[in-house]
Write a sequence for this structure.
C-alpha cells in the first residue's frame, strides 16, 4: 500500500505558517472569510500521509482535512477513478437523479456504495454533506414516527393546511434527542442537536429539542470500572426521563459512537446496547452519526460494529472519509409512505460516489480496516509508554483497540499543536483540552516514529 | 454554439417510459426509493438539448433536470474542464477548505466564480445545494441582526449557556419571512420558508416563521394594470403588518424573483423595489433566492437585474445551473464578526466550482444570456399565437421579455406532459396547473419548431 514516493520524514523550511500562506490568505480574505485559513496547500505536491504547503514545508498529516482524507493524497487508485469516462460523464451531465437517473446509477449504488452498508442496513439515501445527511435522517425519523401514529389513515385537510402554516398538527412538535458535547452539523436541524460549542450555535434559532448527558468516563478504564458503569446508567436514566417528560414526543435519538468534535468522548458497548433497547421500547428511531467515525479508522468499518448490537441500527449517517454523504437504513418503514417526501434536485453527486466506490475498493482489497486496527494497537502502546514518561502532558489516553482513533488530554493543546506543526506534524484538537489523532487508513507503523519523536521533542520543549 | 451532432428532431421508438426504464427502476427500488423515477437516461448518448433514454428514445429536453443543465448535455467545453488536471486534483484531494485551501482556491474564486457575482456583491460563501445555500443565508441574516442589536458588546455567559440549551437569548426567537407558494428547499431552515405543497412539509417540525401573500397577477398584464398594482400594494402592506406584529423579530425576508415550483408567479420590478425599501427601513436582510432563476434563463444573468434596484441586494443564493451552490453578498456586516461562525468541513466542492467556471466562460464568451433573451422573444411570440388558437389550453401566458423563462396554465397539465413526452418533448410542470419551460441557454430558434409542433399535436389530440 505504501506510496513509493512518500517522503521519509517531515521537512520544514520556513516559519509556520510561511510567508506564501500569509500572502494568499490576505488575498482570499477579500472575497471570502479567510480568518480560519491555517495553511495554503499545494495538493499536487502532497502525497500519501504527507502534505506540502505553498512555502515548501512538508508535514506528516494526522489530521487529514478534519478526518476526511481516507487513503492518502494523490492515491493512484483515486487518480484513476478521477480520470475515468464514468466520472467525466457524471461531472458534465448532472441529473436530477430522483427523476432521471443515469444508466450507471444502479451499479454505482447496488454494486458500489451498498458494499459499505452497515450490518442489516438494506437501503440508502444519498446526500452531499454530513449536516445534510443528519437533517435527512431526522426527517425520515419524523415521518416514520407520524406514520406509526397515523396508521393507514390519509392526511386530513386540516393537517395539510396547518403544515403549510408551520403549525401543528401538520407541522408537529416533535423532537430529536441528542447528547451534551455532541456535534452533528450546522444546518438548522443538525445544529439543534449539536451541543459542543457556543461558536456553532450563538444567535441561531433552534428547535426546542432536549439533550441528555453523555457519559464522562474516567481513565484508565480498568481502574474505574464500577464508577464508569454507574455514570453510564445515570446517563441512560436521564434519557428515559427526558423521553417521558419532554414537552413533546421524542421521535429520534442521534448519537456519535465517539463524540469527536466534543472531545473524543467514549462510552462502552453496554451503554449503546441499552440505548438501542430504550429506543426500541419507545418506538423511537436510533440514528448513529458515523460522519467522523465511519469508514475504518476505529478498526471496524463502522465504529458501531464494536457494540455487537442484537439488531441493526435504524439509521447510520456518513460523510467525510466516504468523500460523499448520506444515510443507510435498516427499517423499511423509514422509507416514506409516499413518493417525493424525501427528495431534492440532486440527491447526492454521482461524481463523488464514483470516488467513494474507488475508496471502498481500496479499503476492501488492501484490508485497510484490519491494518488500521493493528497499527492502532502499536500506536496506542507507544503513546501509553510516552504517557508514563510525560504524565502531565498525556492524560486520559483513550481509544485502546479502536484503531488509530486515539486521543488524549493535555494542559495547553493549542500551544502543543503549534509546536507540533513547527516540527512537521499537522495534528488537530477537539473539545477544550484534547489532542485527537485522525491519521488516514494508510498510516503505517513506519509513520509512528516521526510522530512520536515530534511529541517527545514538543513535550521536552514545553516542560 | 450549436452542437453539430445534435439530432434534428426527437425520435420515439417505444412506449414512454419504455421497458428498459421499467426494469431498471424496479431494480433501483430495492436499494433506494425509485417511485419518482420517470426515465432512466443514457447520458453518454445525450447531446446538447436532446436527451436519450435507455430504450433509445430521444427527446428535446426543455425541463433540463429541473432547470439545472445550463449549456447542454456533453458540452465540449465542460468535457474539457472535466478532464483537466485541476479537476482531477480537486476530486482526489478534497480539502477542509476553510482551514487548508489549495493553491488554486484563490483563482477559482476571484478570477472564476466572482465573475458571476451580482451587481454590488463583493463576497461569497460556497455551498453544495440550494437548500444549504438558503440555510447559510438565513444564518448570516440572524448573526447580522443580532450584531446590530448587540453592537460591540461581547457575548455574555448567559447567552452562551442558553445557546447550548437551544434557548433564548443565546438561541433567539427570530424569523425569516417568506411568501405563500414559495419554494426555498427542504432542509429544516429552508423548509420552514417553503410554502408550495404539503408533500414537502407534512410531519416535519418547522420554525414558527411567517408568510405573506405573493402577488397573484392577472394576465394579460396590459389589461389588468391597475388591478395588479393594487394587488402588489396589498401584499406589501401584509409584509409591513407581519413585521410589526409577528411574535418575534423578522430578521430576514427571502423571495424568488419568479416563484418557480409554486407555479411561475411573477411580480413587477416596482414590487421588488418597494420590498427592498421595506427591508432597508427595518434593518432586515433581503435574500433573493436565485437558485432556479439565476444564470441567464430570464435573459439577464440574474433575474433580479430586471428590477433595476437603487442599491445591491444583501444576499443572492444560487445553485442548479451553476452546478455548484452558495451565496453572494454585498454587505460586509453579513460576514460574521468572529471566525468559525459560518464554517463546515468542505464548504462547497472545488470540482463543481471548476465546472461552474467553465459554464461561466461559455456563457460570457458565447453571449448566451443575450441570445437567450432574443430566443425568448421569438418563443414567447410563437406561444402567444398558439394561445390565440387554443385559448383553453394556453392560459395566462407569462414570461414576456424574461428570456425563455416562460410558462402558462393549462386545464390538465399532467395529461399534457405525458402526451408531450410521447411526442418526444421532455417538459415540466409546476404549481397546480402550470406548464413551465426551462430550456437550456443553448436553446435556439431552430428548437422552437419541434416544440411548437408537439404542442399543436398535443392540443389537437386533447381537444
Amino acid at each position: 500500500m505504501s506510496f513509493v514516493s512518500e517522503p521519509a520524514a517531515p521537512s520544514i523550511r520556513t516559519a509556520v505558517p510561511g510567508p506564501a500562506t500569509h500572502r494568499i490568505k490576505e488575498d482570499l480574505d477579500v472575497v471570502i472569510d479567510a480568518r480560519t485559513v491555517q495553511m495554503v496547500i499545494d495538493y499536487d505536491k502532497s502525497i500519501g500521509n504527507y502534505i506540502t504547503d505553498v512555502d515548501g514545508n512538508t508535514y506528516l498529516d494526522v489530521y487529514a482535512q478534519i478526518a476526511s482524507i481516507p487513503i492518502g493524497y494523490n492515491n493512484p487508485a483515486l487518480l484513476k477513478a478521477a480520470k475515468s469516462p464514468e466520472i467525466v460523464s457524471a461531472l458534465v451531465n448532472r441529473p436530477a437523479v430522483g427523476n432521471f437517473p443515469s444508466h450507471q446509477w444502479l451499479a454505482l449504488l447496488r454494486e458500489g456504495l451498498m458494499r459499505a452498508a452497515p450490518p442489516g442496513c438494506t437501503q440508502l439515501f444519498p446526500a452531499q454533506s454530513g449536516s445534510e445527511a443528519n437533517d435527512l435522517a431526522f426527517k425520515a425519523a419524523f415521518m416514520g414516527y407520524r406514520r406509526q401514529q397515523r396508521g393507514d389513515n390519509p392526511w386530513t385537510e386540516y393537517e395539510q393546511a396547518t403544515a403549510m402554516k408551520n403549525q401543528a398538527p401538520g407541522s408537529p412538535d416533535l423532537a430529536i434527542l441528542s447528547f451534551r458535547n455532541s456535534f452533528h452539523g450546522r444546518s438548522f436541524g443538525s445544529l439543534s442537536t449539536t451541543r459542543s460549542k457556543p461558536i456553532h450555535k450563538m444567535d441561531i434559532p433552534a428547535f426546542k429539542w432536549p439533550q441528555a448527558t453523555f457519559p464522562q468516563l474516567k481513565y484508565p478504564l480498568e481502574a474505574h470500572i464500577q464508577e464508569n458503569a454507574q455514570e453510564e446508567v445515570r446517563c441512560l436514566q436521564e434519557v428515559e426521563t427526558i423521553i417521558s417528560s419532554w414537552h413533546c414526543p421524542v421521535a429520534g435519538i442521534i448519537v456519535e459512537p465517539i463524540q469527536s468534535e466534543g472531545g473524543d468522548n467514549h462510552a462502552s458497548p453496554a451503554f449503546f446496547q441499552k440505548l438501542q433497547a430504550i429506543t426500541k421500547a419507545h418506538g423511537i428511531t436510533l440514528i448513529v452519526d458515523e460522519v467522523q467515525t465511519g469508514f475504518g479508522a476505529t478498526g471496524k468499518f463502522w465504529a458501531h460494529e464494536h457494540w455487537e448490537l442484537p439488531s441493526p441500527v435504524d439509521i447510520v449517517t456518513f460523510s467525510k472519509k466516504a468523500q460523499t454523504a448520506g444515510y443507510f437504513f435498516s427499517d423499511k418503514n423509514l422509507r416514506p409512505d409516499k413518493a417525493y417526501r424525501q427528495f431534492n434536485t440532486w440527491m447526492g453527486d454521482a461524481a463523488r460516489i464514483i470516488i467513494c466506490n474507488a475508496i471502498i475498493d481500496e479499503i476492501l482489497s488492501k484490508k485497510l480496516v484490519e491494518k488500521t486496527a493493528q497499527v492502532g494497537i502499536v500506536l496506542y502502546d507507544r503513546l501509553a509508554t510516552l504517557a508514563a514518561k510525560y504524565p502531565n502532558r498525556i492524560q486520559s489516553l483513550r481509544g485502546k483497540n479502536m484503531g488509530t482513533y486515539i486521543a488524549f488530554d493535555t494542559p495547553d493543546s493549542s500551544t502543543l499543536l503549534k509546536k507540533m506543526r513547527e516540527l512537521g506534524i499537522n495534528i488537530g484538537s477537539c473539545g477544550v483540552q484534547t489532542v485527537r489523532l485522525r491519521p488516514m487508513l494508510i498510516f503505517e507503523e513506519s509513520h509512528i516514529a516521526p510522530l512520536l519523536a515530534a511529541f517527545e521533542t514538543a513535550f521536552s520543549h514545553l516542560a
About this structure: The longest strand of chain B covers residues 250-255. Chain B touches chain A through 124 residues (CB under 8 Å). The longest helix of chain B spans residues 368-389.
